[in-house]
Amino acid sequence: MTDHEHPGVTIRPREPERLERAHGLDLSLLHPWPGLNTPFRGAWCVLRPGDVSEAHAHHDREIFIAMSGRGVLLAGGDRREIAAGDLALLPPDVEHRVANEYDEDFSYYAIWWEPGMSEQYLAEEPA
């Protein structure tokens, strides 16, 4: 057992070396994580100064949890600043992207769920 594991509890530390470049930013997906079954998906996202994520939309909601730095959320024609400690809720089918116009990294956690994820979760979860 490592320093990060206890019976029934597993802590997955942030590991910057695991970040991969995709969609205009650096990210690390929540899944795969052995033993984890969730009705949602997530990613630790880092935008370096000058980065802009690719525009996209989801069929359902998405939540951003800002962890450090500042960024700009561009969604549905709106421009909103987001900073460490802020939460953002994106409604379904709203095209959005995130920009970092500042001199430091902007780090946030994105959580999304789409139709069918709950059914998949229930089908895989032991009764």
From TrEMBL:
Q: Does the keyword Heme apply?
A: no
What terms describe the molecular function in GO for this protein?
metal ion binding
Q: Which domain of life is it from?
A: Bacteria
Q: Which Pfam families match?
A: Cupin_2
SUPFAM superfamilies according to UniProt: RmlC-like cupins (SSF51182)
- Record key words, sorted: Metal-binding
Residue ranges of domain Cupin type-2 in the record: 44-111
Keyword Iron-sulfur included in the entry's annotation: no
Q: Which InterPro entries match?
A: Cupin_2, GPI/OXD, RmlC-like_jellyroll, RmlC_Cupin_sf
Protein name (Swiss-Prot/TrEMBL) = Cupin domain-containing protein
